[in-house]
Specification:
Distance between the termini: 11 Å
Order of helices and strands: HHHHH
Oligomer: single chain
Largest sheet: none
Helix content: over 70%
């Protein structure tokens, strides 16, 4: 028995298989785009987190050593090393603390700036909305009227399968 289709027309099963394959490829491409955008934003978020953690670590662990060293350096710089007394150590420690707070504020500002750059995956969302709009408006194409000989041949082919 010969094939009733001359190759230009495809059966309903072939059309469904083709549509399913194309839809699957489209979904896979949408997912790949979303992953790429999220990966980029995650890198920015991780960098911002590292900077924020760095600010906290600097503030917590370096304050005692840095505060003492800086306070005594200020006292020495103001003349405390030669017996003249220099500035009171209270003021020296307050200046040391202020310096540490400024350093932590700078690192925190860098972290906030990096977090503000993290955005939702706009391209993926727009592409998914566009795909959904297209799929909602899709209507099946009407099949062209078949010739009577082809109708009989296709009926025989269906019945013999």
């Amino acid at each position: 028995m010969s094939d009733p289709f001359d190759g230009t027309e495809r059966s309903l099963g072939q059309l469904v298989a083709s549509a399913t394959a194309e839809m699957s490829a489209l979904v896979h491409d949408e997912i790949a785009l979303a992953k790429a955008e999220l990966r980029q934003d995650v890198k920015r978020g991780v960098f911002g987190s590292i900077m924020g953690i760095g600010a906290v670590v600097v503030l917590l662990f370096s304050l005692p050593m840095l505060s003492f060293a800086l306070a005594y350096a200020i006292n020495t710089w103001t003349g405390g090393h030669n017996g003249n007394g220099g500035w009171n150590l209270v003021w020296c420690f307050l200046l040391s603390f202020a310096f540490n707070v400024l350093l932590a504020a700078l690192l925190g500002a860098i972290a906030v700036a990096k977090f503000k750059k993290v955005k939702p995956p706009e391209k993926s969302i727009a592409s998914a909305k566009q795909t959904a709009a297209i799929v909602q408006n899709v209507k099946p194409h009407p099949r062209p009227a078949q010739r009577p000989a082809l109708e009989k041949a296709s009926a025989v082919a269906r019945s013999s399968v």
